[in-house]
């Protein structure tokens, strides 16, 4: 690539937790995926062989182009992303720092959960409705040919009911549960410490990068 | 105990004269008739007492009964187990008993025979722990656990051994006859963290799973190192010259012991899974295979002087995955219950025997040795954990905080394993054996009593993260799976071979080959689906038990309701769906008791539950046929 590409602008979210070495790694990977172009499109993700077996492949790729994740707009999909956008998405998966205080940790956690929330909420209306949930469960179980569609739907329904009971508690007979909002989503993930689990270590990529 | 009792029984037989050897050999209950003269006839005995005949099984039964009654006694006063861990109370009971026997007989009470401990009492506990181990968490932390187990134990053993040797050199203490090798051997046997003690103490304090798995995993894996070091130093003590080749042999031995044990365990685990594939005609003996194969793996490993604990743990973890799907529900419940029962009894017996064996004449008290042993154990453990954690934190994604390190160091409890190992020392080579025994007992008592009792207040004081035993929820399972896939996907995108990569590879291999071979009806099971089914059945059972069988439609029938409708759904249909959802929300989901080592969730009959589900669906179909329109009326409620 051109010398100008060696020092890409580092988004402010990343520093100081990502070292320049890691950014170099990611940059190299970006260049592979984009085939030395400046931007990546959705088609470029087809070149990753292992991603094909992933049942929620579509949602993952979609997440890279989601303008909400890229912090560009509250809706819509970008057609292509450059390296800065790529880093922005990767920043959702950085590991936790030892010296973070409570407020930082909380913000950290909210960011990560927001990323996941956007993956569920495909129509970008800020709520996970029953249909969207069903869609998620169907995709998750799509790898299993023996499973009927009915089971997937009933599972989604059951999960939705659980969500409603956690978020709203006892509901009156005429109340209707619209969908899971982000606050409800936060409540459901309360017990699980996502900030420690949701990270990828960008350490061991040297060997793999040469394989492709 | 068996050996001692057998000796006693033999004695009794030898002294009671007039018993025909034939009658004794046949073991019949015939009354003894005098040998020799045929003229003196005894009349027919109406009532006889033949204690020696049943002595051994009788005494075993009495011991086990006593142990179980003691347990009941503790739980009568419900506050007691939360303040004082059961292990302490059991040791106290043992001490009491030992005192009584000693006082009554003026000879040392039966000392816990090391063979009995290692061959009969220890395996059930390890099997139970290995079978119910959270494998995912274990493998995620495997590196750290291995690091602590191997390097940590080595550090402790050598550290304690050398510092004790330094103390022994001081002639004022009268210990100069203990050689360096003897000290190293002593260090190696006392540095091992004991799984039984850890289980007994950690069980009640409910720290978060991460901490628990680190301490507990360490206590299991360090068996390999302990076995190697113990045998190594014992042979060194008996050899006259030590060559460099012997040290290399020792290192090679470690690998063989550890890896060999694990391989035996995995192999027999696969054989067990394969066997259960064909047992669907004789369900009754299914549980037997689980126990037999795991015990076989333990004693096979012990036969080759490999690590039996690692073998049985590997076997249990392997079996758990496949056997669960092959056996019937009832067999599975039987296995769980029986395993818990065996391990509970074993643990109780171990602690009581430790108490009993303490009383007696095999002690030699030496203030310096004993107190410095205790001191060094604590110091080296704390140092070791601290230093090792600094190193391993570099490689860990979730670094361990000071609180975690403190709990890990504090949770390094010693127990029955070092107790038995010290009794196994050959007295010819170790003239000061009694001193070692005393020191070991003091350390064990200190860790079990002081650390065991105070760990709960310490955990609360440090505000360590506790485990939250929540009801398993389908939505949580969905989230977890979703999250796994997201993480795998991102790792693929940035080309990173992480944990998930290996886990995925293993899962593919598993599905392709292993499951086809080992599982009878092989349908790729989704954890979400099986959890959902389990919860549905449990929900139905709860409803039946509380008498709340209503005709509110189950969620499972929502799909039938919408069969044949044109997509996309019209707004009225969406409204109805929402309606039905909210009706279902009326049902209060009871929370079952959280899983505990000593109790299992209530089990009800499957048939009844399935019937309830069928009835629910049937009733909904009926009510829908009657209404036959997309009205806003409520479905029929009970």
UniProtKB/TrEMBL annotation, chain A:
MF annotations from Gene Ontology: calcium ion binding; protein kinase inhibitor activity
InterPro entries (UniProt xref): CHP3, EF-hand-dom_pair, EF_Hand_1_Ca_BS, EF_hand_dom
One matching Pfam family: EF-hand_1
Gene Ontology biological process: cell differentiation
Coiled-coil parts of chain: none
Membrane topology: Lipid-anchor
Limits of the EF-hand domain: 108-143
Subcellular location: Cell projection, Lamellipodium; Cell projection, Ruffle membrane; Cytoplasm; Membrane
Broad class of the protein's primary localization: other
Alphabetical UniProt keywords: Calcium, Cell membrane, Cell projection, Cytoplasm, Differentiation, Lipoprotein, Membrane, Metal-binding, Myristate, Nucleus, Protein kinase inhibitor
Any one GO CC term of the record: cytoplasm
Superkingdom field: Eukaryota
Family listed: Belongs to the calcineurin regulatory subunit family. CHP subfamily.
PANTHER family associated with the record: CALCINEURIN B HOMOLOGOUS PROTEIN 3
Protein name per the record: Calcineurin B homologous protein 3
Organism: Piprites chloris (Wing-barred manakin)
Encoding gene per record: Tesc
Automatic annotation (TrEMBL), chain B:
Short name of one Pfam family: Na_H_Exchanger
Official protein name in the record: Sodium/hydrogen exchanger
Record-linked Gene3D superfamilies: 6.10.140.1330, 6.10.250.1040, 6.10.250.2020
Family: Belongs to the monovalent cation:proton antiporter 1 (CPA1) transporter (TC 2.A.36) family.
Every Cation/H+ exchanger transmembrane domain range: 64-460
UniProt subcellular location: Apical cell membrane
Gene Ontology molecular function, alphabetical: potassium:proton antiporter activity; sodium:proton antiporter activity
Limits of the Sodium/hydrogen exchanger regulatory region domain: 551-635
Gene: Slc9a2_0
Membrane topology: Multi-pass membrane protein
NCBIfam families in alphabetical order: b_cpa1 (TIGR00840)
Family matches, as PANTHER family: SODIUM/HYDROGEN EXCHANGER (PTHR10110), SODIUM_HYDROGEN EXCHANGER 2 (PTHR10110:SF89)
UniProt xrefs under InterPro entries: Cation/H_exchanger_CPA1 (IPR018422), Cation/H_exchanger_TM (IPR006153), NaH_exchanger (IPR004709), NHE-2/4 (IPR001953), NHE_CaM-bd (IPR032103)
Stretches that traverse the bilayer: 83-104, 116-133, 145-168, 180-205, 211-233, 245-275, 295-316, 368-395, 407-429, 435-459
């Amino acid at each position: 690539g051109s010398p100008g590409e060696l020092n890409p602008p580092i988004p402010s979210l990343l520093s100081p937790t990502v070292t320049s070495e890691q950014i170099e790694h990611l940059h190299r990977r970006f260049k592979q995926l984009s085939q030395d172009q400046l931007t990546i499109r959705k088609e470029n993700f087809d070149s990753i062989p292992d991603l094909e077996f992933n049942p929620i492949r579509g949602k993952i790729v979609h997440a890279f182009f989601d303008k909400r994740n890229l912090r560009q707009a509250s809706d819509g999909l970008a057609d292509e992303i450059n390296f800065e956008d790529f880093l922005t998405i990767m920043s959702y998966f950085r590991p936790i720092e030892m010296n973070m205080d409570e407020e930082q940790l909380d913000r950290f956690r909210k960011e990560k959960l927001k990323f996941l929330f956007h993956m569920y909420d495909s129509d970008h209306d800020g709520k996970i409705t029953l249909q969207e949930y069903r869609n998620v469960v169907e995709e998750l179980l799509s790898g299993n040919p023996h499973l009927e569609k009915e089971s997937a739907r009933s599972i989604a329904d059951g999960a939705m009911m659980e969500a409603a009971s956690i978020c709203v508690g006892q509901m009156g007979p005429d109340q209707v549960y619209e969908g899971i909002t982000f606050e409800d989503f936060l409540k459901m993930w309360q017990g699980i410490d996502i900030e420690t689990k949701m990270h990828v270590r960008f350490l061991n990529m040297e060997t793999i990068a040469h394989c492709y | 105990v068996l050996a001692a009792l057998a000796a006693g029984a033999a004695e009794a037989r030898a002294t009671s004269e007039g018993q025909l050897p034939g009658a004794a050999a046949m073991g019949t209950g015939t009354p003894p008739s005098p040998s020799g003269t045929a003229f003196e006839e005894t009349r027919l005995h109406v009532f006889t007492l033949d204690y020696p005949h049943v002595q051994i099984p009788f005494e075993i039964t009495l011991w086990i009964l006593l142990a179980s009654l003691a347990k009941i006694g503790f739980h009568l006063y419900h506050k007691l187990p939360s303040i004082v861990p059961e292990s302490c109370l059991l040791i106290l009971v043992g001490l009491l008993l030992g005192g009584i026997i000693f006082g009554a007989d003026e000879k040392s009470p039966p000392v816990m025979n090391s063979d009995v401990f290692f061959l009969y009492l220890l395996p059930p506990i390890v099997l139970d722990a290995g079978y119910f181990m959270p494998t995912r968490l274990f493998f995620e932390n495997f590196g750290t656990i291995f690091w602590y187990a191997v390097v940590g134990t080595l550090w402790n053993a050598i550290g304690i051994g050398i510092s004790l040797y330094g103390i022994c050199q001081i002639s004022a203490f009268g210990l100069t006859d203990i050689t360096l090798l003897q000290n190293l051997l002593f260090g190696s046997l006392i540095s091992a963290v004991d799984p039984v003690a850890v289980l007994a103490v950690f069980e009640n304090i409910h720290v978060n799973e991460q901490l628990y798995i680190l301490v507990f995993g360490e206590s299991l894996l360090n068996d390999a190192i302990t076995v190697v070091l113990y045998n190594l130093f014992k042979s060194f003590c008996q050899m006259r010259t030590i060559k460099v080749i012997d040290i290399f042999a020792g290192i090679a031995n470690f690998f063989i012991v550890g890896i060999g044990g694990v391989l035996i365990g995995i192999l027999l685990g696969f054989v067990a899974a394969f066997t259960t594939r064909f047992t669907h005609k004789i369900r009754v003996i299914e549980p037997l295979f689980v126990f037999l194969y795991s015990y076989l793996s333990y004693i096979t490993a012990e036969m080759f002087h490999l690590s039996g604990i690692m073998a049985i743990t590997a076997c249990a973890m392997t079996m758990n995955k496949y056997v669960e799907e092959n056996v019937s529900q009832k067999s599975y419940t039987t296995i769980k219950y029986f395993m818990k029962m065996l391990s509970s009894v074993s643990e109780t017996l171990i602690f009581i025997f430790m108490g009993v064996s303490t009383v007696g004449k095999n002690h030699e008290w030496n203030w310096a040795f004993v107190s410095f042993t205790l001191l060094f154990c604590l110091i080296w453990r704390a140092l070791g954990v601290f230093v090792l954690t600094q190193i391993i934190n570099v490689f860990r994604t979730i670094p361990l905080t000071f609180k975690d390190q403190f709990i890990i160091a504090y949770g390094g409890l010693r127990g029955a394993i070092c107790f038995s190992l010290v009794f196994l020392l050959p007295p010819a080579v170790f003239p000061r054996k009694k001193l070692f025994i005393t020191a070991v007992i003091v350390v064990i008592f200190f860790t079990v009593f002081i650390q065991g009792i105070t760990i709960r207040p310490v955990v609360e004081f440090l505000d360590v993260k506790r485990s939250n035993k929540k009801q398993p929820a389908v939505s949580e399972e969905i989230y977890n799976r979703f999250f796994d896939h997201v993480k795998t996907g991102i790792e693929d995108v940035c080309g990173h071979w992480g944990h998930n990569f290996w886990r995925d590879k293993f899962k593919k291999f598993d599905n392709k080959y292993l499951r086809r071979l080992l599982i009878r009806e092989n349908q790729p099971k989704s954890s979400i689906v099986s959890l959902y089914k389990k919860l549905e059945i449990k929900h139905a059972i709860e409803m039946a038990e509380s008498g709340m069988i209503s005709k509110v439609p189950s969620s499972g029938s929502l799909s039938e309701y919408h069969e044949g409708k044109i997509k996309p759904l019209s707004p009225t249909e969406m409204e109805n769906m929402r309606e039905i959802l909210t009706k279902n929300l009326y049902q209060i989901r009871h929370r079952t008791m959280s899983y505990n080592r000593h109790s299992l969730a209530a089990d009800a009959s499957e048939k009844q539950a399935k019937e309830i589900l069928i009835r629910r669906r049937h009733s909904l179909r009926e009510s829908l046929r009657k209404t036959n329109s997309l009205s806003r009326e409520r479905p029929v409620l009970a």
